[in-house]
Design goal:
By secondary structure, this protein is mostly beta strands. It is built from 1 helix and 23 strands. It has one helix at residues 9-12, and strands at residues 24-28, 31-42, 48-55, 58-63, 68-77, 83-90, 93-100, 114-122, 126-133, 136-139, 145-151, 154-157, 162-168, 171-176, 180-186, 189-194, 198-204, 207-212, 216-222, 225-230, 233-237, 243-248, 252-254.
Length: 255
């Protein structure tokens, strides 16, 4: 078996135009090091951000009139286990990697290494997020958003068309300017104020769907379902749990 060498890719970003990194040492009891890093990239000519992130909290804020992408990372790790942190231009996309090397195998006595990442982007920037674990908070983005998430809570305020593939953790989606296509494994779901259609395929966990300008379609394994104020409702499978709906201003179909 060939092992990929470990590289602190953030250090390589010094040679990239528009990227600035500052690293400071600070102690934390259960880790060998705590580093804070900053990256930036000129957003002119960029339509979207594709991000591959691992363990740790991820926060993304869309800001009107912003002409660059900025990133701040808090990195907690162990000696000999180095992170990969890069932000580069690839055609009309920005590509972010914020992860610990997936080929490194080690047994940790305490917590596994992780990075908490905060990103600011132009509000009109498309987002394509592939996240491992940890909470995700996105606000202020008025473009299409795709999220593939392993575990951890997801809170999203804004966006146009949303496509979400989630493993586990609570989900809150609000003020969405388009359609929602949500495939969820487990965890509670709360959806409010959507201007398009909502399609949910859910394994387990209660859900509340309120104020949807389009139609709602639900395929559910288990957990309570509450739907209020939509333009139509289709229940493919309700599974187990209470079902209630009110103010459905369109056809209601239950299989």
């Amino acid at each position: 078996m060939v092992l990929r060498p470990l590289v602190l890719s953030a250090a390589l970003s010094f040679c990239l135009s528009g990227c600035i990194i500052n690293v400071n040492g600070a102690g934390k009891t259960s880790f060998d090091y705590h580093r804070t890093s900053e990256l930036s990239l000129d957003a002119n000519g960029l339509d979207g951000l594709a991000a591959e992130t691992g363990a740790g909290a991820l926060t993304i804020e869309g800001i009107e009139g912003l002409n660059e992408i900025t990133l701040e990372a808090d990195i907690y790790g162990y000696d000999g286990v180095e992170p990969e942190l890069t932000l580069v231009r690839d055609g009309d996309q920005a590509k972010l990697v914020a992860n610990f090397d997936s080929f490194y195998r080690v047994s940790f006595n305490g917590s596994s290494p992780y990075m908490d990442v905060t990103i600011k982007v132009p509000a009109s920037m498309l987002l394509d997020i592939d996240d491992g674990s940890g909470s995700i908070d996105i606000k202020g983005v008025n473009a299409d958003i795709r999220v593939k998430d392993g575990s951890g809570s997801l809170n999203l305020d804004g966006g146009k068309n949303l496509v979400i593939d989630d493993g586990s953790g609570s989900i809150v989606l609000t003020n969405v300017d388009g359609n929602i296509d949500l495939d969820d494994g487990s965890g509670s779901i709360e959806v409010t104020n959507v201007k398009g259609d909502v399609v949910i395929n859910d394994g387990s966990g209660g859900m509340s769907i309120v104020d949807v300008a389009g139609k709602v379609t639900i395929d559910d394994g288990s957990g309570s379902i509450e739907v209020n104020n939509t333009q139509g409702l289709t229940i493919i499978e309700a599974g187990s749990g209470d079902l209630s709906f009110n103010n459905i201003n369109g056809p209601v179909s239950m299989n």
